[in-house]
Amino acid sequence: MNTTSTEVAAAAGREARGEFDVWRIREDFPVLRQTVHGKPLVYLDNAATTQKPRAVIAAIDRFYTADCSNVHRGVHLLSERATMAYEEARGKVRRFLNAASEREIIFVRGTTEAINLVAHSFGRPRLGPGDEVVLTHMEHHSNIVPWQLLCEEKGARLRVAPIDDRGELIFEEFERLLRPCTRIVAVAHVSNALGTVNPLRRIIEAAHARGIPVLVDGAQAAAHIRLDVQDLDCDFYAFSGHKLYGPSGIGVLYGKASWLEQMPPYQSGGDMIRTVSFEKTTFNELPYKFEAGTPNIAGAIGLGAAIDYLDSIGLEQAAAWEQELLAYATERVGAVPGVRLIGTAREKGAVLSFVMEGVHPHDIATVLDRQGVAVRAGHVCAQPVMERFGVPAIARASFAFYNTREEVDVLVTGLQKVREIFG
Predict the structure, then answer these.
(1) 241: CB partners within 8 A, 6+ apart
(2) pTM listed for this prediction
(3) Which residue, among 292, 293, 296, has the nearest Cα to 264 in the 3D structure?
(4) How much of the chain is in helix, strand and coil states, percent to nearest 5?
(5) CATH 3.90.1150.10 domain position(s) in the chain
(6) FRET partner for 156 with CA separation of 20 to 30 A, picked from 34, 37, 290, 295?
């Protein structure tokens, strides 16, 4: 991202005019009020997980204190209320994604389980020797390992589209990998390590032109980009609640009903069945065919509350504020002596990854932690990206709409402290 001083000054002016009231919003997040090592918490690890607003905490508390019961099974009032709240959450997710039907919304534990579900239920029956799965070089481990294991099992081949020095997909090379033997494309919407926003529409159009379905890992996108799965025309879309200001242990797989109807169940047990005998079992309708056992009811309700909260503040306004923070941080962090930015795509999510000459990222994160600043350090579940850029690990600051320019300044001061300590 190229950022000018004029753009940074303009961002400061917009904040001063209160066009996005970040200070009011921060009041909704109790965790941000604490101190760490005697310093005010500066939480910049939002790509790993986001903090939770009171509305989400209250929704979960309300379920456990007033409505705690299993869903779909009981005729008593608590079960009816729990079922209603659970299914209302599914409806909120459908609207959030603009899916055609609630039948296309499957609750899972998170993005990882969603991808595994597609690999097992969609991929396993379709892959054989000589078939191929196409990924990109910027994928999270969760969108590599399931396909790798499946290809090893089936004698298929994993093909990887390269990225350039900015961290952008080399689209022409990606297109060359799409062949008659390609059974699925699995691609990140936004890279967790680089922040790169992939040209998703072009990717999907190119794959569909060859009859190839596309799964999108939306873990880093759902909280920052207005989604419309019908407009994108993706076949599967996965995201996690805990990166969307909701609770952990809940996520969503969107799948086109035409595919889901064909796919066998991923897990078996209660609630995913229609009839059971020792001779034969028949399966439930969508989406319940893929939701075996007691689900994470409170998690789904909390996710619904998180979507309501995002709607209340305006996802587009929040995303615009995050982009202003990213622009400001890119200029300020990039000016720290010895810092090298990793991932400079022209279109980025609110992720700033970097290394510092002569200092291991773990040491950077440790020093920053003593200043109250929480960042990520390590390979961030993207070891192929580290290899591509010739680094063992990175430090990563990732922003949410509750972060401020002042917090970016604290980050920069912390990096200067790192420089002082390590020379």
Answers:
(1) 110, 247, 248, 249, 250, 251, 252, 299, 302, 303, 306
(2) 0.94
(3) 292
(4) 45, 20, 40
(5) 5-52+314-422
(6) 290
Domain with CATH 3.40.640.10 in the chain: 56-311
Across the 423 residues of the chain, what is the mean pLDDT of every consecutive 10-residue run?
A: 44 54 97 97 98 98 96 90 97 98 98 98 97 98 98 98 98 98 98 98 98 98 98 98 98 98 93 90 93 96 98 96 98 97 98 97 98 98 98 98 98 97 89
CATH entry 3.90.1150.10 includes domain 5-52+314-422: yes
Who contacts 315 (Cβ-Cβ below 8 Å, separation ≥6)?
224, 226
Pull the structure tokens for residue 54: 């009171």
Can you give the pLDDT at residue 309? 98
Q: Provide the CATH topology of domain 56-311.
A: Aspartate Aminotransferase; domain 2 (3.40.640)
ω before 287 within 30° of 0 (cis)?
Answer: yes
Do the strands 339-342 and 214-217 form a parallel or antiparallel pair, or are they unpaired?
unpaired
Structure tokens at 3: 């950022």
Q: Say which residue the tokens 């020095």 belong to.
A: 165
In the residue annotation, 381 being an active-site residue is answered as: yes
